[in-house]
Write a structure and sequence with these properties.
heterodimer, A: 301 residues, alpha/beta, Rossmann fold, 7-stranded mixed sheet, 4-stranded antiparallel sheet, 14 helices, globular, B: 560 residues, alpha+beta, MetI-like fold, 3 domains, 5-stranded antiparallel sheet, 16 helices, 61% helix, flat, binds adenosine-5'-triphosphate, binds magnesium ion
C-alpha cells in the first residue's frame, strides 16, 4: 500500500537537520552523539523487518511547543507479538505510545510530522475517525486512572459507550476481564462499590481489565506494573503471555527482566530517538551496539 | 557540586524553627476562624432568641406609678441610662412595657423609670387580646353580652363563658372571610375570563363573526350563573355574620376605662398569669401555627406570612431550576469546548465582574427587559384582550417568572465560576482514560466529567440559592409586592402562575421593619420573619448539602 501523502505544510519540511559542516565529527558513542545533537542511524535487526507489521511508524516527529520530543522514529510493530519499549526516563516512550492512539491531539501545543499506519490505514489521515481508531486499541496509563463509578461500570465502560446494555454480555466480559487482570478474587464481592476505593495497585489492574474488555487489536501498556507488587506483576505478565499470539502488545517498561521475560521484540530509545530495535533475545544477549548492552545490563541509565 | 563543605548548609535558629513548626500560623488561622464563627453564631443566636420568643405569652404585669397611673403590659426590655438632667449624672434603670391599647393611649410601648414605679404586681385575670384590627388590647374581662342580655358577669365567669363561645364565633368569622376572599375571587375570575373572551373574539374576528356571538352568549350565561352563585354566597356570609354580630365582650383597662369588643374581632385571648407552662406552650404553638399558615393582617404586622413563605420557596426553586442548566452549560462550553485564548479569558473576567454588579442593577434590567420587552411582547401576542379591555398587563409587569429569571441572572456568575472550578478539578487523566476507551467528547463529559464534578456544581448551586433567597432590592422592581392576594401557586389549573405578583420574606422584613406605620409594634415580627427566612434557607441548603454528600460518597474516595 502506498504511504499516505500528508500535505500539511509542517509535514513537508525536513525535520532532521544535518549537523553543520564546520562542527567536529560526532563522538563515537552514539548516546553522547545524540546528546550533542547529532543524527544517529537506528540499528534495526533483520528479523523485525521479516515480520508482518500491525503498526508502522514512519519518520515520526513530535514537538511539545518548540521542544522536540520524538525524532524521526521509524519502526514497524509486528502483528500479534509483544514489543517492549525501554529507555531512560523522559526519552519519549509515553509520548510515542500516546501518539499511536492520537491522545496527543488533546494537548494543545503538540505538533507532529510523519505518519503511523495501523494495518495500512494512516492514523494521522484527516479522514481517519479518531474515535473509531481508539476503539481498535486499548491503553493502560502510567498512573492508574479509574473512572468515578463502580468497579463493574469501569470494566465495561467501552462496551457501555458502544451502547451494549445486555446484562449477560456485560457480566461475562466483566468477569473475564477482571480474571485476566488478576483482580477478580479481590473485586468479585465489591463489584458495585466505587472503583476509587481500591488501592493503587488494584486500580492499575482495574485499568488493565478495562483496556482488555473490548478485545482491542492493539494493546498499549505504559508501565502497567510500576505500581504492582511482585505477585500481581507476575499475574499481569502471565496475562501478557496469554495475549501473545492473539493481540499485538506494545509495552513500556523500566524493568529489564520484565522486558526480557514477556516481549518478543525490544526497542531501545534515547532522548526521543530509536537507537536499536530487534528481537528481545538478541537485544539482551548480543546487541549490535554496546550502548544498548550497557543500558539493558544496567551499566547505564 | 560538592557535599562536603565545611559550613553546614542548613542553619538552625529559634526563628526558623518557629516558622517551621507553624505554631504562629495555627494561632492566626484558628483565631480568624474563631472570630468568624463567633460573629456568625452571635448573629444567629440573637435572631433565634428574639425571633423564637415573639410568640411566647409573657407575664402581664400591672405597673402602678407614683403619679397614680396604672398600666397593664408585658415588660419587654430593661436598660440602664445616665440621667443628664441632674447636676451630677447618675445611672437610672428603666423598663419598657408593652402597654397595647393603642386607640386609648396612642402608643404601643412606653418606658418607665425605676423611680416612677411604685409597685408591680401580677393580677390573676389580666388578659391579652389579639384583635383583627387595632393591635393588642390589655385589660380585665368584665362581662359577656349577647345583644342586651348579659350572659356572664365578673372576671371568672366572663372568661369561662368567653372560652366556651369564642372558638365557634372565630370559626364562623374565618369562614365568612374565606368565602369573601376565595369563593368570590373565583367567581370574579370566571366573569373576567368570559369578558376577556368577548374582547378577544372581537379583536380576532370582528363583531359580525359567529365566534363573537358565541362569546357574548357564553358571557351572558356566566353572568347569570355567577349572579345566582353570588346570591348564595351572600346568604351564607350573612348567616355567619349574623350569628356573631350580637356577641360582645366588655373589658376594663388597668386605668378602669371600659371597652366593648365584638366577639368576632378577637383573634385570640389568653391570661398569661393564670397559664401553666403547658398552657403557655399551647398558646405559643397556636400563634406559631397562625404565623405559618395564615394570611397577614394589619399591614403585615400581625397574622401569618404564609403567602410570603410560598413566594420565597417558589421563587428560590424556580430560580435554581433556571440557573442550574444555564450556568452548567455555559461553564461546560467555557471549560471543555472553547479553546483557551484571550477571548475565553476575557469572557471569564467578564463573568467574574458580573458577580460584583449591584443587585438593583439586575432589578432594573429585569424590569426593563423581561417585563417591558419580553413580557410586553408576550402580552401583545397572547394576552391582548386583557391589555385592551382592562389596560392590565399580564406578563408585561413584574411576576414570579420575571423575578426568578432576574435572580437566576444575578446568581449565574456564582454557578458558572463554581462549575468551572469543579470541572477543572476533574483530573485530565480521567478524560484521557475515557478517550482511550473510544468515548467521544460528549460521552466523556456526560459519563465521567459531570458525575465527578457534580458535588462541586452543587456547591455553586447552594451558594446561588442562599444568595438568591436573601435578595431584596431587585425583587422590588420585578414582582414582589407588599400584599399579593392571589398566591403564585394554588389548586387551580395550571397550578403555578408565573405571571402573578407574589410576596417574599426578605421584602417583608424590609416592609414591616422599616416601612410600617408603627414599626415599634411590628419589631418582634421582624425578628420572627428573619428567623423564619434563615430557617427556610437552612432547610433548602441542608437538602442540597445532603444530596451533595451522597454524591461525594459515591464519586470521590480517598486512596494513597
Ligand atoms: N504535555 C507535555 N508538554 C511539554 N512537554 C512534555 C509533555 N509531556 C511530556 N513532555 C516532555 O517530553 C519528553 C518525553 O516525555 P515522556 O513522558 O514521553 O517520557 P517517558 O519516556 O515516558 O518517561 P518516563 O519513563 O519517566 O515515563 C520529556 O522530556 C517531557 O518533559
Ligand atoms: Mg512515561
Amino acid at each position: 500500500m502506498q504511504p499516505q501523502i500528508d500535505n500539511r505544510p509542517e509535514n513537508r519540511v525536513n525535520a532532521t537537520i544535518p549537523p553543520q559542516q564546520s562542527t567536529p565529527p560526532p563522538p563515537a558513542d552514539r548516546l553522547l552523539a545524540v546528546a550533542a545533537g547529532y543524527e544517529v542511524p537506528t540499528e534495526v535487526h533483520e528479523q523485525v523487518l521479516n515480520e508482518s507489521p500491525v503498526l508502522e511508524i514512519d519518520r515520526f516527529n513530535l514537538w511539545y511547543g518548540t521542544k522536540q520530543a520524538l525524532h524521526g522514529i521509524t519502526m514497524p510493530i509486528p502483528d500479534k507479538k509483544v514489543t517492549a519499549l525501554v529507555g531512560p526516563s523522559g526519552c519519549g516512550k509515553s509520548t510515542l505510545l500516546r501518539s499511536v492512539n492520537r491522545l496527543n491531539d488533546l494537548v494543545q501545543s503538540v505538533r507532529i510530522t510523519g505518519d503511523m499506519r495501523l494495518n495500512g490505514d494512516s492514523i494521522y489521515d484527516p479522514r481517519m475517525d479518531v474515535i473509531d481508531l481508539r476503539k481498535r486499541m486499548g491503553m493502560v496509563f502510567q498512573k492508574p486512572n479509574p473512572f468515578p463509578m463502580s468497579i463493574y461500570e469501569n470494566v465495561v465502560y467501552s462496551l457501555r459507550i458502544d451502547g451494549e446494555n445486555n446484562r449477560g454480555v456485560l457480566d461475562e466480559v466483566c468477569e473475564a476481564s477482571l480474571r485476566g487482570a488478576a483482580l477478580w478474587d479481590e473485586a468479585k464481592d465489591r463489584l458495585y462499590d466505587s472503583a476509587l476505593g481500591l488501592s493503587g495497585g488494584q486500580q492499575q489492574r482495574l485499568c488493565i481489565a478495562r483496556a482488555i474488555a473490548a478485545e482491542p487489536e492493539v494493546l498499549l501498556l505504559d508501565e502497567p506494573c510500576s505500581a504492582l507488587d511482585p505477585i500481581a506483576t507476575g499475574k499481569v505478565e502471565d496475562l501478557i503471555q496469554e495475549l501473545r499470539g492473539r493481540y499485538s502488545v506494545l509495552i513500556v517498561t523500566h524493568n529489564m527482566q520484565q522486558a526480557s521475560r514477556t516481549s518478543d521484540y525490544t526497542a531501545f530509545m534515547y532522548l526521543g530517538r530509536l537507537i536499536e530495535y530487534g528481537p528481545t533475545t538478541e537485544i539482551f544477549t548480543k546487541p549490535i551496539l554496546h550502548e544498548t548492552e550497557a543500558y539493558v545490563t544496567g551499566r547505564f541509565g | 557540586m560538592s557535599f562536603n563543605k565545611q559550613s553546614p548548609r542548613r542553619l538552625r535558629s529559634a526563628h526558623s524553627s518557629l516558622a517551621a513548626h507553624g505554631e504562629a500560623w495555627v494561632w492566626l488561622t484558628g483565631g480568624s476562624l474563631a472570630i468568624a464563627i463567633g460573629m456568625i453564631t452571635g448573629l444567629l443566636l440573637f435572631i433565634t432568641v428574639r425571633g423564637a420568643s415573639t410568640f411566647w405569652p409573657a407575664a402581664m404585669e400591672l405597673v402602678e406609678l407614683t403619679d397614680g397611673r396604672r398600666v397593664l403590659g408585658e415588660i419587654t426590655a430593661r436598660e440602664e441610662v445616665i440621667d443628664q438632667s441632674d447636676d451630677v449624672p447618675k445611672p437610672i434603670s428603666r423598663k419598657l412595657v408593652r402597654t397595647a391599647n393603642f386607640e386609648i393611649d396612642g402608643k404601643h410601648y412606653e418606658w418607665f423609670d425605676q423611680g416612677e414605679i411604685l409597685q408591680i404586681s401580677l393580677p390573676e385575670w389580666a388578659t391579652a387580646v389579639e384583635r383583627l384590627e387595632g393591635g393588642r388590647f390589655h385589660g380585665f374581662p368584665l362581662r359577656l353580652l349577647e345583644g342586651d342580655r348579659i350572659v356572664a358577669e365578673g372576671s371568672a365567669q366572663t372568661w369561662q363563658a368567653f372560652v366556651a363561645v369564642h372558638a365557634a364565633a372565630r370559626r364562623r368569622c374565618c369562614e365568612a372571610l374565606r368565602i369573601d376572599r376565595h369563593d368570590r375571587g373565583v367567581l370574579q375570575r370566571e366573569l373576567r375570563a368570559a369578558r376577556l373572551a368577548v374582547v378577544q373574539a372581537d379583536l380576532d374576528s370582528g363583531r359580525e363573526s359567529s365566534t363573537f356571538a358565541a362569546a357574548v352568549a357564553s358571557e351572558q350565561s356566566v353572568i347569570k350563573r355567577t349572579a345566582s352563585q353570588s346570591v348564595v354566597l351572600d346568604q351564607k356570609t350573612a348567616a355567619l355574620r349574623n350569628a356573631n354580630v350580637a356577641w360582645r365582650v366588655e373589658f376594663a383597662t388597668a386605668a378602669g376605662e371600659k371597652k366593648m369588643l365584638a366577639l368576632d374581632s378577637i383573634v385570640r385571648a389568653w391570661q398569661p398569669n393564670r397559664l401553666s407552662v403547658l398552657g403557655k406552650l399551647g398558646v405559643y404553638g397556636a400563634r406559631w401555627r397562625e404565623f405559618l399558615v395564615d394570611d397577614p393582617r394589619e399591614a403585615n404586622s400581625a397574622g401569618g406570612v404564609f403567602p410570603a413563605i410560598l413566594g420565597t420557596v417558589a421563587m428560590t426553586l424556580i430560580m435554581s431550576l433556571l440557573v442550574a442548566p444555564f450556568g452548567v452549560l455555559a461553564a461546560l462550553y467555557l471549560r471543555e469546548y472553547a479553546t483557551r485564548g484571550p477571548l475565553t479569558t476575557a469572557v471569564r473576567i467578564a463573568i467574574n465582574n458580573l458577580a460584583g454588579v449591584p443587585s438593583i442593577v439586575y432589578g432594573a434590567f429585569g424590569l426593563g427587559f423581561f417585563c417591558y420587552v419580553l413580557g410586553a411582547g408576550i402580552d401583545d401576542i397572547f394576552f391582548q384582550a386583557s391589555l385592551v379591555a382592562d389596560n392590565q398587563p399580564t406578563f408585561g409587569t413584574g411576576g414570579l417568572l420575571w423575578a426568578s429569571l432576574t435572580l437566576a441572572l444575578l446568581t449565574l456568575p456564582v454557578v458558572i465560576v463554581a462549575t468551572e472550578e469543579a470541572l477543572s478539578a476533574v483530573p485530565n487523566s480521567m478524560r484521557e482514560g475515557s478517550y482511550a476507551c473510544g468515548a467521544g467528547k460528549w460521552q466523556t463529559i456526560r459519563r465521567i466529567v459531570l458525575p465527578r464534578a457534580l458535588p462541586g456544581i452543587m456547591t455553586g448551586l447552594i451558594l446561588a440559592m442562599a444568595r438568591g433567597a436573601g435578595e431584596v432590592a431587585p425583587l422590588m422592581l420585578v414582582g414582589v409586592k407588599k400584599l399579593a392576594v392571589d398566591l403564585p401557586i394554588d389548586s387551580r389549573f395550571p397550578f403555578v402562575h408565573p405571571e402573578r405578583e407574589f410576596m417574599h420574606l426578605a421584602y417583608l422584613i424590609y416592609d414591616v421593619g422599616f416601612q410600617s406605620p408603627n414599626s415599634q409594634a411590628a419589631r418582634p415580627m421582624v425578628f420572627t420573619i428573619t428567623f423564619l427566612l434563615i430557617a427556610i434557607i437552612v432547610l433548602l441548603n441542608g437538602t442540597a448539602v445532603w444530596i451533595r454528600s451522597r454524591l461525594q460518597r459515591r464519586f470521590i474516595a480517598q486512596h494513597f
